[in-house]
Design a protein that fits this description.
Elements (H helix, E strand, L loop, with lengths): L13 H5 L4 E3 L9 E5 L1 H6 L4 H4 L2 H8 L10 E3 L3 E3 L2 E3 L7 E8 L5 E7 L14 E2 H16 L6 E13 L3 E11 L5 H9 L3 H15 L9 H23 L1 E2 L21 E2 L23 H20 L3 H12 L2 H16 L8 H17 L4 H12 L4 H4 L6 H11 L5 H5 L9 H12 L4 H10 L10 H4 L16
Antiparallel strand pairs: 1-3, 2-9, 4-5, 6-7, 7-10, 8-10, 9-10, 11-12
Helix pairs in contact: 5-17, 5-18, 6-7, 6-9, 8-9, 8-10, 8-11, 9-10, 12-15, 17-18
């Protein structure tokens, strides 16, 4: 396909044009010494961007926001958010800029967005900067999520800035360039609602429908259809998180997209030993966003979206509430259906397997994994071997192997398809100890572990010689793991 010279890159101003009340024109801060650390060349190709130019000084300048294509107008987006349950009416892009929108090779509109590009009017006292470690974490994990088939924002590049950023200690600064179907959030609608401007709220809904759920425009009640579509998208997304063992870590309403893409990989991680109470985030002291709480939190966040769009659902307030509640009540059954279908696939069972048999079998299995502190990803990958008759790989994961033998016998009687299991149960994920090892090396200037880890997690299902350590669980002495958001 043809590529677009960066000097004339067709960056549209769709968001700023449609919703000027939610867009503040702004510029990235100067960068002392920009150096490209990593670039997703395949994604650049999808966007029609010239890889050689992106690697040039001009291209790196665009990736940190200091070189802006002719006609582009970077903006900081306004939004609100419920953060750990408390409402903040004015959050917005405190350290980020939307450069504009591109049309990719498939005709899809995609945001090109910077994170860590400096203070904006929404910075709320922060420095607006980001550091190498957290930006590379987002690059690694979003690449892995994409390879797993989980809807996600994409990371185009990470650029070191040459600036020292002060956190607990001085750390090397960086900017992440990421791509999304859009950066519309539940918090975007909360912000529009706080203004009291129903016209703004309606234009935001129209913008969201056009960008993400165009079929809603043909519905009798387009805004209700939009809300129902977001409920569906989030039910599917969170089910996929749970099936993969992913913990987002900070499911505030400003971190939930209207598109149904995973966004804002801050204190995220994949679970090791299965435990619904798993919390990795250093700031989640109450466990609000624990692994097992994610479906309920998603439903809570969607209730906040429903409150925000009530004026668009019906002129009569009581009727609007009834419509919203009826739509929201579909979240749990749709999540349950998506999770159950995914779990049947992980177990190698056909989609029409008797739920009355599969459901208690699944519950018993998860109870065993939790009781024996079994690594979640390792177990499901090893289970395919048991489907082929070799139970040793799963038996050695249990302190009392006899506890899994009875379960395995019942499961095998259902005729699981081991080959199908290998296609849905990953061998390689961004295991926490490997991510930390990679980030530590990168901060010290060694990018070779990053390259090796990316090679593994971007082809997660295919076993390859030489990658054995990328499939292995953390050593017992890895200890308690904590992640940080980087601000």
């Amino acid at each position: 396909m043809s590529v677009t010279p960066l000097s004339t890159a067709a960056l549209d101003r769709r968001f700023a044009r449609d919703l000027p009340e939610m867009a503040v024109s702004w510029q990235a801060e100067p960068v002392p010494d920009a150096r490209l650390l990593v670039l997703d060349e395949d994604l650049a190709g999808e966007l029609g961007l010239d890889v050689a130019e992106l690697r040039s000084p001009q291209g790196v300048g665009m990736l940190v926001g200091t070189t802006v294509p002719v006609g582009a107008t970077p903006v900081a987006q306004a939004y609100s958010g419920h953060q750990f349950g408390g409402f903040s009416p004015r959050l917005g892009d405190g350290r980020a800029l939307l450069l504009g929108e591109l049309v990719d090779a498939h005709g899809r509109v995609r945001d090109l967005h910077l994170k860590g590009s400096g203070r904006t009017p929404f910075a709320r006292g922060g420095d607006g900067l980001a550091t190498v470690g957290p930006m590379l974490r987002e690059y690694i994990v979003s690449n892995a999520m994409h390879a797993l088939g989980i809807p996600t924002t994409r990371s185009l590049a990470v650029v070191a800035t040459g600036r020292t950023v002060h956190r607990e200690t001085g750390l090397p600064g960086a900017v992440l360039a990421r791509v999304a179907s859009s950066h519309l959030r539940v918090g975007s609608f909360e912000y529009a609602r706080t203004t009291g401007d129903v016209d703004l709220l309606r234009r935001l809904a129209d913008h969201a429908i056009s960008r993400h759920h165009p079929a809603a425009a043909e519905a009798e009640n387009p805004c209700l259809a939009l809300f129902e579509a977001v409920v569906d998208a989030q039910a599917s997304l969170v089910a996929q998180w749970m099936l993969a063992g992913f913990v987002h870590g900070v499911m505030n309403t400003d971190n939930m997209t209207i598109s149904g893409e995973t966004i804002d990989y801050g204190p995220c991680a994949f679970i090791n030993a299965f435990d619904p109470d798993t919390v990795y985030s250093s700031i989640d002291h109450s466990g609000r966003y624990a692994y097992g709480n994610q479906p309920a939190v998603a439903e809570w966040n969607l209730a906040r979206l429903a409150e925000a769009v009530l004026p668009l659902l019906h002129a009569d307030g009581k009727h609007a509430v009834a419509l919203a509640m009826s739509a929201l009540e579909k979240f749990r059954p749709r999540y349950d259906a998506a999770w159950s279908a995914g779990m049947r696939a992980k177990l190698g069972l056909p989609g029409d397997a008797d739920e009355a048999v599969v459901s208690p079998l699944t519950a018993q299995l998860l109870g065993l994994l939790q009781a024996h502190h079994v690594d979640y990803t390792s177990f499901f990958r090893a289970l395919a071997a048991a489907g082929r008759g070799d139970t040793a790989p799963i038996r050695h994961l249990f302190t009392d192997p006899a506890r899994i033998d009875e379960w395995t016998a019942h499961w095998r009687a259902l005729g699981p398809d081991a080959d199908a299991m290998d296609r849905v149960n990953p061998l390689y994920i961004p295991r926490n100890h490997l991510v930390e090892e990679t980030l530590t090396a990168a901060v010290d200037g060694d990018l070779s572990p990053l390259s090796r880890l990316l090679d593994a997690v971007t082809a997660p299902y295919d076993e390859r010689p030489g990658l054995e350590r990328y499939a292995a669980a953390a050593a017992p002495d890895f200890g308690t793991y904590r992640t940080f958001c980087g601000t």
